[in-house]
Structure formats: structure tokens, C-alpha cells
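Problem statement: downstream parser choked on a complex file, so we are re-checking the raw output for the zinc ion run. The parser issue turned out to be on our end (a line-ending mismatch), but while we're here, posting the original submission so the record is complete.
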Amino acid sequence: MAQYEITHSCGCNQTHKLFGPHAERERKIAWMESFPCSTCERARRLEIASSQEAEMSLPALTGSDKQIAWARALRSEWISESVWIADRLSHREKADLLEKLLEYRTQVLTEKVAAGWWIDGRRESVYPGTTIFGDHWTVLEEFDRGVLPKALK
Ligand SMILES: [Zn+2]
């Protein structure tokens, strides 16, 4: 293991601990340099979250300040993915699935106001190192495959 000072795409330097063979570390460094640092990424995500919250009149989340900030970012990520999938469904003329997706999204966004629900159900690709896949992510993936999710049948 070694520590590396990495200059991210936002211009910030951050120290990261990297493991594994040398060539692999070099690849990882190049990959990490192409992304903003975690602080800028979080700020960017919270900005997107704020505009989604205003636009969609989303309910405030409940929990500690730290939990709420984290959960707002996760909810925002989930919304962005659902918007992307909705676009694909309408493109493929899957009107029935699109309608179900929008219904499901409204239900989740209205009912799931506990920050802990979003944090417990986060998925690996959003925050590396976590392995919990929330059902709400699985449902989105099924919509993306063009099938009515099992959970909604
Ligand atoms: Zn930065």
C-alpha cells in the first residue's frame, strides 16, 4: 500500500491510499484523475439535489444533518437514473412500463422520507466499498431491462 497525491479534474489535490500491483495503481490513478474530488463531487451532487427538490417539490428528509446530506445525494442519484431510464422507455415506446415507472417513483419519493432508508439502500456504484443493493435500485434496473419489476407484479 502507498499514498498518492492525486490532482482531480476539478483541480483539487487529494491523498488516496492505493493497493495492488504497480501497473494497476497507475491505471487507477489515471482513472481517478478524470473525476472531480469527493468534496467537489458531493457539492455538485447537492446542487443537483437542490434543483430536483425544488422542481419536483420533494419532501424534506428526516435524520441527522449528516445523514440528510448523504441521503439527499443518494436520492438525487436515484432520481437521475430513473429520469435516464424513463427517457429510454419512452424512446422504445414502452408507454405502459413508463407509466408504471413514474407511478413507482412518485410513490417512493413521497413515502421514503427517512434518510436512513436511502443510506441503507445505497448501491455499490454510487459509493465504492458498499455492497448493499437497495430494492429501489433493483427495481430501476428491471425497468431498464424493459420488464415489469418482480416487486411490482
Ligand atoms: Zn475538488
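For whoever reads this later: Confidence is low (pLDDT under 50) at residues 125-132.
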